[in-house]
Amino acid sequence: MTVRGPGRPWSHEIPDGPWDAIVIGTGIGGMAAAALLAKLGRRVLVLEQHNIPGGFTQMFRRPGYRWDVGVHIVGEMTPRKYLGRLLESLTEGRLQWESVGPVYDEFTFPDGFTIQFPSSYREFRDALVDTFPAEQQAIDDYFALTRSAARAASKMLQLRSMPKMVSAVAGRAVTREAERHFRATTAEVLASLTDDVRLRAVLAAQWGYYGVPPSRSPFAMHALMVQHFMGGAYYPVGGASSIAPALLQTVADAGGWTAVRRGVDAITTGRGSVTGVRLDDGMEIAAPIVVSAAGGIETARLVGDDLEPEEPGYTTPGPAHVSLYLGFRADVENLGGTRYCQWFYETWDSEVDVWDVSPGRDPGRAAVLFCSFPSIKDPAHDPGPELRHTGEAITFVPWEPFARWQGTRWGRRPDGYEA
């Protein structure tokens, strides 16, 4: 018998089967997939190796404070947008969102140049034209391209959820259009629109949200991100940790469950088909459907050589980053904290993507710094009489200086790590 805590539809225990589907990993993709299967009447087992679910939607605590680890702002969270309607349905209305206001991002570049990104397309466009009056045509062309690229990319992704015979016939034109935008890099598209280096840097400034500088990012990816925020940005009421209970309760209500501290060793197969999973402790669980939300590299390891992927290819890990989590006892808004996110660039060169902290050299200032104040964005946050607030500063770093500590445990790193 599984015992659930208040508001926590998960535990270490695994109820008896049978299971219609197993989902590996509780990032937002895994939880959404599990909730969607549950809404379709499937009994779903969700497996998570960490002691709490949520992936980058979780939060961590220290006495008097709690911080996000991945959710800073999210676009399209209104009933007028598909994603907003989807999450409303998958959470049965348990998850609420708060607008961060008329501005969602602010960027500061060298020489004190600052520009804000409004949540209104018209105001955004006008702000850019006011700042770069000689580039009005380039700015209009940029927004037209992002709309068409995002539309084509979205349609192509939707086609992939359809039966192959349907998508093959109906999607040829859509696929050709989308592939054109996926093959072009963001840097190439921006260079074709304008010679103004500063305008190109401003238009590419949000590359940190997907972690790849303009020369390495598909323009379709950039366009999807731009359009994602075109209607404004939102923050979950109660903090990012409200997301996991809202989605996983839907799984539990349909007879499923989420088991934490349950690492998966392999996806099991038989006669060319998936049969279930094998856990780290050797326990095997059967299910005719297994959804891996553990990432492409880890999924390839779990499957091994038993099944050939439908689309060959390999992915490289995302960029490494360091996060500084700050706790305040002060009126943070009077000190410069904002509901919108703040970005600080030390250069107009959008390709300078990492802060080189290699041993034996002076790292200088980080080339790009992202700052967010989650407690200000959350209407449910109570700062108390001590005015407790939280802030986060994030920048990208190379992985190599940290590689020597791979395999060591948090809280038990060697002395060199702390230095």
Task: Walk me through the topology.
Layout: E1 10-11, E2 21-24, H1 28-39, E3 44-47, E4 59-62, E5 65-68, E6 74-75, H2 82-90, E7 97-99, E8 103-108, E9 114-118, H3 121-131, H4 136-159, H5 164-170, H6 172-183, H7 186-193, H8 197-203, H9 219-228, E10 233-236, H10 243-253, E11 257-259, E12 264-270, E13 273-279, E14 284-286, E15 290-292, H11 296-303, E16 320-329, E17 341-345, E18 368-372, H12 374-377, E19 388-397, H13 415-418
What does the model show?
Helices cover 30% and strands 22% of the residues. By secondary structure, the protein is an alpha/beta fold. The strands form 5 sheets. It has a 6-stranded mixed beta sheet. A 5-stranded parallel beta sheet has the order 1-11-3-2-15. Strands 6-10-7 form a 3-stranded antiparallel beta sheet, with no helix packed on it. A hairpin with a 2-residue loop joins strand 4 and strand 5. Helix 4 crosses helix 9 (219-228). The longest helix is centred in the middle third of the chain and has 24 residues, at 136-159.
Quick gist of this model?
This protein has 13 helices and 19 strands.
Could you name the key traits of this structure?
419 residues; alpha/beta; globular; disordered N terminus
What would the average pLDDT be, to the nearest integer?
A: 91
Low-pLDDT segments, ≥5 res: 1-6
Which descriptor suits the 3D outline?
globular
Distance between the termini: 47 Å
Q: What oligomeric arrangement do these chains adopt? A: single chain
Provide a count of the helices.
13
Helix content: 25-40%
Q: Hey, roughly how much beta strand do the residues contain?
A: 15-25%
Global Rg: 23 Å
Strand numbers in spatial order across the main sheet: 9-8-17-18-19-16
The largest sheet, given as strand count, sense and whether it forms a barrel, is: 6 strands, mixed
SSE-based structural type: alpha/beta
